[in-house]
Amino acid sequence: MKIHPLILVIDDESKIRRFVCQSLEREGFDVASAGDGEEALKVYEALSEKPDLVIVDYMMPAMDGLEFLEEFRKSASTPVIFLSARSETSVKTKALEAGADDYVIKPFSVEELTARVKAVLRRVSPQTDSTGSQELINGPLKMNIGKRKFYFDDKEINLPDIEFRLMAVLMKKPGIVFTHEDLLRQVWGAEFIGETNYLRVSFARIRKKLRAAGLEEPLISSYSGIGYYMEDYSE
């Protein structure tokens, strides 16, 4: 049984890998590590206790961060933070589209990295309240909050934590427009206000999954520069 959160750190530069691992250990985390994406997949499968979070470098030999994440997301919804020296919006967008939960630009401080790690872990930690088994229904959509299950026309759709939390916010109040700031604060945290690209990419992934499941009409709409809302099927 894990006492401390376990973090898998993936980076081909041994100095950076050691620095990140030692910094996280000083903060009280347990750490496993790998030198590239291929090794990381093997390490992940070999671990008896699965990581609570993965930190992966963008540029690596053999299998880079994007290739790793695309393979990893086929079977795991564990949150992933990207590390990269590349700050271009297009590169950051690719990482988010592949399923990254956050993106930290090198060079970074220990304080920044640990704050990002703790923020992501807070989002995915179990919440204890009276709505733990709450079921939300909006037309063909159904969501069980406690079991973290989401369905369209009784077909289960796999949603990683960020996507699930976004849909939960909208499904609790269909027909209501949520501003970018509202959604970023509720799902990512106040420190992410202004990161509207995170919303755009996450909703694009959700829409793609719904279309693949058979949804033919628009479900989530955006108000340019304002926010997003979900159609209310009860009206």
What's the short version?
This protein is of the alpha/beta class and 235 residues long.
Structural features, described:
It contains 8 helices and 12 strands. With 235 residues, it is of the alpha/beta class. The chain has a 5-stranded parallel beta sheet, sandwiched between helices. Strands 6-7-8-9 form a 4-stranded antiparallel beta sheet, with helices on one face. Strands 10-12-11 form a 3-stranded antiparallel beta sheet. Strand 3 (53-57), helix 3 (65-72) and strand 4 (80-84) form a beta-alpha-beta unit. The model is unreliable at 127-132 (pLDDT under 50).
N-C termini distance = 48 Å
Q: Specify Rg, calculated over alpha carbons.
A: 18 Å
State the order of secondary-structure elements, H for helix, E for strand.
EHEHEHEHEHEEEEHEHHEE
Low-confidence region ranges: 127-132
> What is the averaged pLDDT score?
88
| Derived structural class | alpha/beta
Shape: globular
Secondary structure: elements and pairs:
Blueprint: E1 6-10, H1 14-26, E2 30-34, H2 37-46, E3 53-57, H3 65-72, E4 80-84, H4 89-98, E5 102-105, H5 110-124, E6 135-138, E7 141-144, E8 149-152, E9 155-156, H6 161-172, E10 178-179, H7 180-188, H8 196-213, E11 220-223, E12 227-230
Parallel strand pairs: 1-2, 1-3, 3-4, 4-5
Antiparallel strand pairs: 6-7, 7-8, 8-9, 10-12, 11-12
Helix pairs in contact: 2-3, 6-7
